[in-house]
Structure formats: C-alpha cells, structure tokens
Design brief:
By secondary structure, the chain is an alpha/beta fold. It has one domain (about 5-295): TIM Barrel (Alpha-Beta Barrel), CATH 3.20.20. The chain contains ten helices and twelve strands. The chain has helices at about 20-30, 50-55, 90-105, 120-140, 150-160, 185-190, 225-240, 245-250, 270-280, 285-295; strands at about 5, 35-40, 65-70, 75, 85, 110-115, 140-150, 165-170, 195-200, 215, 220, 260-265. It has an eight-stranded parallel β-barrel, surrounded by five helices. It has a two-stranded antiparallel ribbon with strand order 4-5. The chain has a two-stranded antiparallel sheet with strand order 10-11.
Length: about 300
C-alpha cells in the first residue's frame, strides 16, 4: 500500500452530486500524486462510487494498484423499484456482496475485503461473516480481509482476531480524538494487524486551517466543545509553523502500525493538496510536545 490512500465516499455523491468526468479527475489526480490504494463500498451512493471508481481505473494495469471494498450491505430493489441497502453478514450474503462489487468495479478480484459497520450485527459478523471472508481469502477471491468501522465496540471485538489482516479505523484515531489508542491499537499491535486510518479529518473539521462554526462532525453539526478543541489545535499548529490539516495528516500516520492514511476528496485540487502535505517532511516533534503539554493529545 502507498502511505496515502483515496477514500471514495465522495464519488457516491456524499455531500454533492458529481458526474463521471469529475470522479475520474479526482482519481487521476490521486494517481498523479502517487496514490495507488483506493477504498470503496457498495454503501457509497448505492454502488455509484464503485462504478465510478472502476471506470476511472479501467485504463490502468490491474497489478499497479490496490483496491478494497466492503461487505455486509447488499443492494436490492425496494418496493418502489429503487435500490435500498439490506444488511447481510451471512456466508451467502458475503459472497454475493463481493461478486456484485466486482461486477460494478469491472474487476476479477479484490485486494482487500472489509466487513462494513458490523456493530449492529456483531454476532453474525464474527461467527459467520468473518469465516466467510477467511474462505474467500483461501480461495484467492480476495487477498486480505478486515473490518472497517468507526464503532469502538466493534473494533475492539475484532482487534485481537488473528484471522484479520487489517482494521480500517474511521475517525477514532485522529488529531482531534484518539479513543482507539486505549484498547483497539494495543490489541491489533499484539497480533500484528495493520491499521488503515480513515476519517482523519473528522468529517472535515480538521481539513481547514481554522475551523469555522459550520464545521461538520460525524456528518452533522460539530459539538461546540469539539469545535473549540479543534481551534486550539489549529492555533498550536500555526504557532509551530504548519497548518491544522497538515498536522492532522502527520499525526494519523505517526504510529508504525498504520499502513495507510485514507482521505477523501470533493475535487482534484483537494487530493493534490493532501498528497503534498502527506509527503512534506516538516519536523513536527515540537508540535507534538506542545499538544501533550496542552492536554490535547496523549503523551
């Protein structure tokens, strides 16, 4: 994996509608910046992100990039004929999910398959979904398996499972907050599970040099206490000669357990800017020491 990856929720019209040309321009900009890991899911735009990503990657050699998608939600026609999401962590559901993702992506295999947001179906995901992914890996349909969620309980339940290759931690190991450091990261480290660190801007709150009052958190309005915390982080980053998004990217990648930091982008300019920051070797040890002293990150 490359140190920076592209998440594709935005390719599924997360915050605004876009067409294939714009989606392709985002993927092209990521490629030109050296990014070779792309994460998607059926959940993103009801399959739209997978189709757009597959179309954008089609001119590239399959051996030149790594792609992950997710399982646990099937897309089915509702009563009105429109697609709806249907939870399914059964073995048949997992296999069907992978098959349908491959059709939308126009690929013959997945590099990584992740159980997606299993927290409301934890028993089935652990006892049926996970063994199903293990068998798919043994059959060569996928190369690696894991779990992707922002739910700490689900992450903790899977973090010590030696069958896993990776945990995608969404928004729980960031400069703003690090609850995954208490239990999840130590458990994953003990058994050698890699971390894919996603949601590192906390729904965009850390993506601006100075967070504004309309900042989002968990895809909704940011709580005032977190907004104030983000602003303190921004002030400290500025005093250290950097920016809040630059510091957020650097912090998310600090731990050697993190194999990749995954970021999304609304346009090509955003992913180019993120790639420049991620590759900037600006020393930040002084900033980390200052944030520890301020009680904003753990020692």
């Amino acid at each position: 994996m490359t140190a920076l990856g592209l998440g594709t929720a935005q390719l599924g019209d997360l915050y605004q509608s876009l067409d294939q040309d714009r989606a392709t321009s985002i993927v092209d900009a990521a490629w030109d910046a050296g990014i070779r890991y792309f994460d998607t899911a059926p959940h993103y735009g009801l399959g739209l992100a997978e189709r757009r990503l597959g179309a954008a990657l089609r001119p590239r050699a399959r051996t030149d990039y790594v792609i992950s998608s997710k399982v646990g939600r099937l897309l089915r026609a509702g009563r009105d004929g429109r697609l709806v999401r249907q939870w399914d962590f059964s073995e048949a559901g997992i296999r069907r999910s992978v098959e349908e993702s491959l059709l939308r992506l126009d690929l013959d295999r997945l590099d990584v398959a992740l159980l997606h947001d299993p927290q409301e179906h934890l028993d089935e995901a652990l006892n049926t979904g996970l063994p199903a992914l293990v068998r798919l890996r043994e059959e060569g349909v996928v190369d690696a398996i894991g779990v992707g969620t922002g739910d700490l309980g689900a992450l903790a339940a899977f973090a010590a499972r030696t069958e896993l290759d990776a945990l995608m931690i969404a928004g729980r190991y960031t400069l703003l907050e690090q609850p995954a450091l208490t239990e999840v990261i130590p458990a994953a480290r003990a058994v050698g599970i890699s971390v894919l660190n996603a949601g590192v801007f906390n729904s965009g709150m850390l993506a601006r040099d100075h967070p504004t009052s309309d900042a989002r958190y968990e895809y909704g309005a940011a709580p005032q206490e977190l907004l104030a915390r983000a602003r303190r982080l921004a002030d400290a980053a500025t005093a250290a000669g950097t920016t809040l998004p630059h510091a957020a990217l650097a912090y998310a990648a600090r731990d050697p357990l993190v194999a990749c930091v995954v970021v999304g982008a609304d346009d090509a300019g955003q992913i180019r800017a993120n790639a420049r920051m991620a590759l900037d070797p600006l020393p930040l040890d002084g900033l980390w020491s200052e944030l520890v002293a301020l009680g904003l990150i753990p020692a």
